[in-house]
Amino acid sequence: MFNFSQYFSNYEQCYQVITWLTCIGLLIVSFEYLAIHKEFKPDGVYSWKVFRSRHNFINNRLFHRLDFLFGYTAFIVCQLLIIGCCIILPFAQDHLLKAILIAIICLISLMISFRNIVGADGSDQLFSIILLTLFISYLINDPFIYRIGLIFISGQVVLSYVVAGIAKGISQKWRGGQAIIMIMNTKTYGHEKIATMLSASSRAFNIFLCWNIIVVECLFFAVIFLPCPWFIPFLIWGFLFHLYNAVIMGLNNFFWAFLAAYPSIFYLNHLITG
């Protein structure tokens, strides 16, 4: 039987898996952007001509000269660059080359975040955290920095779960069992069949679903303290939770961002529990 804990006790193997999963996630994001590329044309929903009007400072002479960096053609080129970097990165052997490729991805991602004022979410932030950690680690190429990087990523992931759980616990709609039904009834993230099924279900069942998420997220910090294999159910729950969100709600980025960070949790757990 494959021993995940033993495998991810090696920081080099952790970085290899994290790099692979991050690249897969970013490739999917870029291909999704390319699938709706027409929306980034001057007459599209995500036109830079429209987005640039949000702040006066963007309309000064300097930004007029930089318009070519945020237009339709530049946007397509940026996505192709990210795709190229993500294809090369997992196979790159030189640490400096890896750092350069990640730096390119980071710079382009920052440009896209500045250009697009809608659609960003927690997965984008987690991808940014992972990419910056990978960049610093590969650039310095020191065992101590590699280990600190993994601890930092795992800490961010655990904190994000716990904060999300506390936020849900504060909400009356989550505590009362209405939250998931309401989400499933939305046009953006909802699913008609699931919404109908939940509406027909008992109040106790809906309360159970909501409290299941609240409790597990609030207790997610236990993954770094519980000995193997007792912390594995938390990660399986997280995997299935994000898989559901990806398939039903269309939150693909969350699935790959959190999955990419899971090796760091294995590593930190191994450091603490031995």
TrEMBL record:
<feature type="transmembrane region" description="Helical">
    <location>
        <begin position="204"/>
        <end position="224"/>
    </location>
</feature>
<feature type="transmembrane region" description="Helical">
    <location>
        <begin position="126"/>
        <end position="141"/>
    </location>
</feature>
<feature type="transmembrane region" description="Helical">
    <location>
        <begin position="69"/>
        <end position="90"/>
    </location>
</feature>
<keyword id="KW-0472">Membrane</keyword>
<feature type="transmembrane region" description="Helical">
    <location>
        <begin position="147"/>
        <end position="167"/>
    </location>
</feature>
<protein>
    <recommendedName>
        <fullName>HTTM domain-containing protein</fullName>
    </recommendedName>
</protein>
<feature type="transmembrane region" description="Helical">
    <location>
        <begin position="17"/>
        <end position="36"/>
    </location>
</feature>
<keyword id="KW-1133">Transmembrane helix</keyword>
<feature type="transmembrane region" description="Helical">
    <location>
        <begin position="96"/>
        <end position="114"/>
    </location>
</feature>
<keyword id="KW-0812">Transmembrane</keyword>
<feature type="transmembrane region" description="Helical">
    <location>
        <begin position="254"/>
        <end position="272"/>
    </location>
</feature>
